[in-house]
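Q: Got a minute? One more chain.
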Amino acid sequence: MRIYKQNEMDADHVTGWSKGGVTDPSNLTMLCLTHNRTEDNK
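A: Always. Here it is, folded:
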C-alpha cells in the first residue's frame, strides 16, 4: 500500500457523472490520478 500526497489524488464519482451521479461530497471518493483516469466509466 502506498500513501499518496494530496496533489496526487483526484475526486472520483461513485455513481458516474454520465450515469446521473451528482458532483457532491456524498457521491465522491478519492483515488490516485492513475487509477481515476484508467477506471471504467461507471
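A: The chain has one domain: 6-38.
Q: Perfect, thanks.
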